[in-house]
Amino acid sequence: MTDTFTNVLQSVLSVSITVNQQESTAEVSNFVGKKPLEHKVLILGLDNAGKSTLLYKLVTDDGVSTVPTIGYNFEEFTYKSIKFLLWDIGGQEAMRPSWETYFDNTQAVIFVVDSTDLKRLPAVKKELDKIIVNDNLSEATFLIFANKQDQVEALDPSEISKRLGIPSITSHHIRIQPCSAANGGGLEEGMNWIFSKFSAVK
Ligand SMILES: Nc1nc2c(ncn2[C@@H]2O[C@H](COP(=O)(O)OP(=O)(O)OP(=O)(O)O)[C@@H](O)[C@H]2O)c(=O)[nH]1
Ligand SMILES: [Mg+2]
After folding, report:
1. Reported pTM
2. Do residues 74 and 19 lie in contact, with contact meaning Cβ atoms separated by under 8 Å?
3. Tell me: the pLDDT tens digits for 31-54?
4. Which CATH superfamily is domain 37-200 in?
5. For the chain, what are the domain ranges?
6. Distance in Å, CA 52 to ligand 2 centroid
7. What are the catalytic residues?
8. CA-closest residue to ligand 1 atom 9
9. How many Cα atoms are found within 13 Å in the side-chain-facing hemisphere of 67?
10. Whose CA is nearest to atom 6 of ligand 1?
11. Cα gap 122→103, rounded to integer Å
């Protein structure tokens, strides 16, 4: 992430709330029936994909050491005139059935993939295929972050895209973005793309 972008993010950071607790329904009630000024964004993906690392890199630009998320982490920040409500949900297998309790009123899904974990790409595809057909996400924009690109063994994003079947997904706005949550590379491009989609529906 460039310094400028980080500075902008930090200068407009309005409220930051961190929650890491047991399962809860992630209801955000103030979208119903009116033009959203806040955008609910879910950060999903398998355990160890780098979701929490990405969340805190984005919001604070700090490299944090994470522990596996039990439940969720929540952060909000305002970028330009748009407030992002970011829900980072634990990705361990036992928690995945609970993901859909968070889907209501979601405008975007940031789906994080560990680009070095080739063995689990079929499991990644299975989860992506499941959530993308969920009625509560029918209007959501999907940003796939091919994370951990700082690692030499990381798979090329175009190959990840192919293995996840992304080119054949026509039902949603969807884009794959290579990134490293560890050093921030690619995060700006990804967030700007989501921002452009939100701006387009204003
Ligand atoms: N090299 C490298 N390591 C990363 C990157 N992103 C995350 N990691 C590491 O991957 C591990 C898992 O990161 P988390 O952010 O906790 O993963 P998570 O997706 O939140 O996992 P759950 O909470 O269990 O669902 C940690 O050791 C991170 O330091 C990255 O871009 N590059
Ligand atoms: Mg986590």
Report:
1. 0.85
2. yes
3. 444 444 789 999 999 999 999 999
4. P-loop containing nucleotide triphosphate hydrolases (3.40.50.300)
5. 1-34, 37-200
6. 4
7. 92
8. 50
9. 4
10. 50
11. 23
